[in-house]
Amino acid sequence: xxxxxxxxxxxxxxxxxxxxxxxxxxxxxxxxxxxxxxxxxxxxxxxxxxxxxxxxxxxxxxxxxxxxxxxxxxxxxxxxxxxxxxxxxxxxxxxxxxxxxxxxxxxxxxxxxxxxxxxxxxxxxxxxxxxxxxxxxxxxxxxxxxxxxxxxxxxxxxxxxxxxxxxxxxxxxxxxxxxxxxxxxxxxxxxxxxxxxxxxxxxxxxxxxxxxxxxxxxxxxxxxxxxxxxxxxxxxxxxxxxxxxxxxx
Amino acid sequence: xxxxxxxxxxxxxxxxxxxxxxxxxxxxxxxxxxxxxxxxxxxxxxxxxxxxxxxxxxxxxxxxxxxxxxxxxxxxxxxxxxxxxxxxxxxxxxxxxxxxxxxxxxxxxxxxxxxxxxxxxxxxxxxxxxxxxxxxxxxxxxxxxxxxxxxxxxxxxxxxxxxxxxxxxxxxxxxxxxxxxxxxxxxxxxxxxxxxxxxxxxxxxxxxxxxxxxxxxxxxxxxxxxxxxxxxxxxxxxxxxxxxxxxxxxxxxxxxxxxxxxxxxxxxxxxxxxxxxxxxxxxxxxxxxxxxxxxxxxxxxxxxxxxxxxxxxxxx
Lengths: 249, 316
Ligand SMILES: Cc1cc2nc3c(=O)[nH]c(=O)nc-3n(C[C@H](O)[C@H](O)[C@H](O)COP(=O)(O)OP(=O)(O)OC[C@H]3O[C@@H](n4cnc5c(N)ncnc54)[C@H](O)[C@@H]3O)c2cc1C
Ligand SMILES: Nc1ncnc2c1ncn2[C@@H]1O[C@H](COP(=O)(O)O)[C@@H](O)[C@H]1O
Prior knowledge:
heterodimer, A: 249 residues, alpha/beta, Rossmann fold, nine-stranded mixed β-sheet, two-stranded antiparallel sheet, 6 helices, 13 strands, 27% helix, B: 316 residues, five-stranded parallel β-sheet, 8 helices, 15 strands, elongated, binds adenosine monophosphate
């Protein structure tokens, strides 16, 4: 079986982002970029499935600007076998991403797509579900446990009430939650080896998908800032404040 | 215009998150219909009919909808979609699981986790873990939305008198099967709707020490939450997690204990009315959003606070 792992290049989760003064978006010039943290977990899971003999090949896909190839190299250094870069504007939205991934699934015929549950820049939490819909495949989202057997996946999903277990028929789209695994660091020899692994470059046109946004981001602004309050000297002072000033207890 | 809201429930009770989504739907300037899909869920349909602002309840009943998988729920909603301009669900794990599938089947770009309705096609939503607020306009003829419950007040659960009509149910899609659910039963209030939340972080040191948080929560009648670090360390179950990738809460009082205040945590609680931070590191970023801070050892402060509140309660 082949596993497809879509990986998104995003502003690193440690960066304190700045909203542009003209309201046009977030300043991404000269900030550290990384693989979306959930996608690292997806990548790790695919590698573990390969190591366990469930898969023969892992193909990482990234859609966006030329620099996405750096993100693909990270996936290759972790253990993916080859990469596909769809060269497109930086901000292709989930529905168009899902359509491009559908076309790539058509070419590559994977048995599983393993991806992040959410990109930490747009926080959409859509793409995996959309891809599963477009393919007519089963979806298992927000998974924190995975077992494969007999053409099926049994997963634990992190839901608001606790944990849910479902079984899905393969091929399927899985979206991963944070507790599924702890991604490995790429070793130096693997980073060197990754440089020689192949990356195919495609365009949205090759995949027959129009990358134009269907959601217009009219304005991006600073959210209302909270004022830092006061540090108090004692528990009694806190109780008094909560009772008398804030009136919340 | 008419909006269809997916009612969330456990076949016995309507999940209050639904009431917040009904309010958002009402702000679109649409008639609001509620879809109750389940098995043996007549009581839920009846409760849905009493929600104020609901003009009609669609009741879909079938054994395979008892614990519906996304494939089946999405197929049902898509089958009804022709009559609606807006399709909504609360941005719970159910809403997040199902609605993008609906959107893609309808070839619509979903707007996730809206916090404000500016018009029938224009919404506000947070991006970058709550560090930027975007105004988004949908260019599609239909709109698929998920709703952040904390920013829309709940619709009144009583007073409405909507008719209940049954909705046709197709065959199960058959790609996925529900096996079971491990639900954390607790006497405490539910995290996302509690008036007071007490959360513990890595600073708690162990699951055992969370007893201190629970004791404080109990004297306040509060729900218990946690940072991701506390969940990852196995101190508490996953459904306690507050933050960008966990639950979003906005109680009247949020007490963060032994939590540093990473942006991913703040994303889930910074709309709380009053925030209290207890942390031994006076530089911890949590103090930048806290109204009241106590710098010191939580193992000393929390029992003292619990005791002081208990005394105050006894005196009142
Ligand atoms: C993609 C992604 C998503 C994430 N999503 C979330 C999310 O949804 N929610 C979330 O919470 N995190 C999330 N995180 C993790 C987040 O970045 C932080 O790592 C996490 O919030 C830290 O948890 P913490 O504050 O409990 O731990 P720490 O940052 O380790 O802080 C512990 C604090 O406890 C204090 N302390 C220790 N001992 C004591 C004592 N005896 N008395 C008083 N104070 C004490 C310390 O001073 C410190 O400030 C996410 C991270 C990533 C990469
Ligand atoms: N431009 C992209 N390139 C590759 N994968 C993507 C891209 N956008 C989204 N994804 C995948 O979809 C997941 C969910 O993203 P989102 O729906 O935007 O929150 C991510 O974790 C990635 O696995």
